[in-house]
Amino acid sequence: MKLLNDYKNKKVLVLGLGKSGYAAAKLLQSMGAIVTVNDRGDLSTNEHAKDLKASGVHVVDGGHPLDLIDQSVALMIKNPGIPYTNPLIVKAEEIGVPVVTEVEIAGRLSEAPFIGITGSNGKTTTTMLIGEMMKGSNFKPIVAGNIGTALTSVVQKATNQNVIVAELSSFQLLGTRQFHPHVAVVLNIFDHHLDYHGTVEKYAAAKARITKNQTSEDALVFNADSERVLRFIADQSNATKVPFSLKGRVENGAYVADGTIYYRDEPILKCEEMGLPGEHNLMNALAAVAAAGVYGVPAKYIADVLRSFKGVRHRLEYVDIIQGRTVYNDSKATNIIATSKALHAFPGKSIVLLAGGLDRGNTFDALIPDLKKAPIKAVLLFGQTQKKLLDACQKAAIPVIKEVANVEEAVPEAFALSKPGDVILLSPACASWDQYKSFEQRGDIFIEEVNKFR
């Protein structure tokens, strides 16, 4: 880690005590900053809060007092999910206090170069693939970021012999200023998080920050099949362009031709040999191939990873074949696009779909064409969106539609409505918070219930 004096004896306010807030507070205090942590929740029993207080960090909970911000504060580090309409952030920006996310701090302090991965869908799978592929070179990858490990915790141990492979959300990127990955990967841009960003243009602008500070000595790996990625990001970038495409040969990049994955015209492996199902995972694989290729990872090792990699927990995760049914846990499919992709991952197989969850105000009409096209035998619906999904399924003429209380009740119904050779798929198209603490808990419960039928 670079030892900078930038923060010594400077007042820093950390807004939001999550994983990233805790890691950032610890790191900045170790560098001599005078740190205050603020969270609107009750932190009286929070172990991280107790640890910070014991080490001398000032912790304020139960609200956001405006007097925490004045011109004596040198920096605010915000939790990515806190909107910029928060009164403390509004005041900070009004009086000129810089507001960043921990990604910015990690980028300034890291000795290790970054591979940054962003996009509306596929980030986690692509990040994990790149991490596995990088093990096949002389680099020592550290996988972190939006995938679950705070970047400010990993930069403390990273050296110039490492590469940090970082999953980055639009929320995280919006709070960057000088962040400069050596390789930036942009997968796609869909109409996501518009309740936060306001418009797709602003959402894309947040994503574009991943390449804002890149030069021709850096690489932008981008989806050449996405008009939005081209228009909003690739066309504006100063980096060396490394495209990937499912539609055929691209110059200096990764592509599919005649059922084979290529990188810079070198064959890597047949598409049918991939360990992950679905066209969307083929696109993720191309992005990973291109990013690893930039670093010179041998083609043989890239191919070995693509054959052996079976997926990320809760992202179209293969569970097992149970009573002849092939079971997949796609609990991380918290939006329509993710579920749409999952429905097309099993050509020729009849699907029993489990879906539903938190109501964010949207309809599911956009899912109707996919519901019609996929060979769906039955759908089991639960959660707040049950009635909205019921309407979409009826319009799609799904032959069997059942409403159930939750995932626990859906699983036995799924076995009853399916037969050997069918696919049982949990792909909710919704967030989990109406009934479960997280999509991880929802997926774990699904697997527990499924295992009762072994």
From TrEMBL:
<dbReference type="InterPro" id="IPR013221">
    <property type="entry name" value="Mur_ligase_cen"/>
</dbReference>
<keyword id="KW-0436">Ligase</keyword>
<keyword id="KW-0547">Nucleotide-binding</keyword>
<comment type="function">
    <text>Cell wall formation. Catalyzes the addition of glutamate to the nucleotide precursor UDP-N-acetylmuramoyl-L-alanine (UMA).</text>
</comment>
<dbReference type="InterPro" id="IPR004101">
    <property type="entry name" value="Mur_ligase_C"/>
</dbReference>
<keyword id="KW-0131">Cell cycle</keyword>
<keyword id="KW-0573">Peptidoglycan synthesis</keyword>
<dbReference type="Pfam" id="PF08245">
    <property type="entry name" value="Mur_ligase_M"/>
</dbReference>
<dbReference type="InterPro" id="IPR036615">
    <property type="entry name" value="Mur_ligase_C_dom_sf"/>
</dbReference>
<feature type="binding site">
    <location>
        <begin position="119"/>
        <end position="125"/>
    </location>
    <ligand>
        <name>ATP</name>
    </ligand>
</feature>
<keyword id="KW-0067">ATP-binding</keyword>
<feature type="domain" description="Mur ligase central">
    <location>
        <begin position="117"/>
        <end position="292"/>
    </location>
</feature>
<keyword id="KW-0963">Cytoplasm</keyword>
<protein>
    <recommendedName>
        <fullName>UDP-N-acetylmuramoylalanine--D-glutamate ligase</fullName>
        <ecNumber>6.3.2.9</ecNumber>
    </recommendedName>
</protein>
<comment type="similarity">
    <text>Belongs to the MurCDEF family.</text>
</comment>
<keyword id="KW-0133">Cell shape</keyword>
<dbReference type="Pfam" id="PF21799">
    <property type="entry name" value="MurD-like_N"/>
</dbReference>
<keyword id="KW-0132">Cell division</keyword>
<feature type="domain" description="Mur ligase C-terminal">
    <location>
        <begin position="314"/>
        <end position="430"/>
    </location>
</feature>
<dbReference type="GO" id="GO:0008764">
    <property type="term" value="F:UDP-N-acetylmuramoylalanine-D-glutamate ligase activity"/>
</dbReference>
<dbReference type="Pfam" id="PF02875">
    <property type="entry name" value="Mur_ligase_C"/>
</dbReference>
<dbReference type="InterPro" id="IPR005762">
    <property type="entry name" value="MurD"/>
</dbReference>
<comment type="pathway">
    <text>Cell wall biogenesis; peptidoglycan biosynthesis.</text>
</comment>
<keyword id="KW-0961">Cell wall biogenesis/degradation</keyword>
<dbReference type="InterPro" id="IPR036565">
    <property type="entry name" value="Mur-like_cat_sf"/>
</dbReference>
